[in-house]
Design brief:
The protein is an alpha+beta fold. It has 6 helices and 6 strands; from the N terminus they run H-E-E-H-H-E-H-H-E-E-E-H.
């Protein structure tokens, strides 16, 4: 699955948990997210909330699979695919997919994922905060790169990509 789709699905999951600052790394085929906000999330808070992208027909087994003992969340390929399907189902119910704001973490992560799909990194690490985003990645030939994005710049890139998609239709 392309990084753009994976990161959007993970972003929707993080939004449902109220996580706004995190570090994400690509670990083999899985993504691992760490955040200061994660330890504050209790099992009861997840059960009480309205249906989120983390809930399944067997919520406890899915949570056990994704929440790690070290306080991180692990998103393996099957879990990301499931999250993507849940997100698609929710988006289909909306009047227009274009009505979602460009300030949403999921949309901004999708844009960052599209960039990663273009540079095809061997591995990467994303540090996300309210002040900006730091993307570090290693190319297939071993070169290391570091890019800094402000939230405003990432929003601008998101709007541009939407305009390009709209023209193709």
């Amino acid at each position: 699955m392309p990084h753009a789709k994976s990161l959007r699905a993970i972003g929707q999951s993080l939004e449902s948990l109220g996580i706004v600052a995190f570090v994400m790394e690509k670990n083999g085929r899985s993504y691992v997210v760490r955040s200061e906000d994660l330890p504050k999330i209790s099992e009861s808070a997840i059960k009480i909330s309205e249906p989120t992208v983390l809930e399944t027909s067997s919520p406890s087994s899915m949570r056990a699979h994704s929440f790690q003992k070290d306080g991180s969340i692990r998103y393996d390929p099957s879990y990301v695919s499931w999250l993507d399907a849940q997100g698609r189902r929710k988006r289909r119910k909306r009047f227009s997919a274009q009505s979602t704001g460009t300030a949403r973490v999921s949309q901004l992560l999708r844009t960052l994922g599209r960039h990663l799909d273009q540079v095809e990194p061997h591995s990467f690490n994303i540090s996300w905060s309210k002040d900006g985003i730091c993307l570090e990645y290693e190319s297939g030939d071993g070169q290391r790169f570091r890019e800094i994005f402000t939230l405003g710049k990432l929003r601008e890139l998101t709007v541009r990509s939407r305009v390009r998609r709209a023209r193709r239709r």
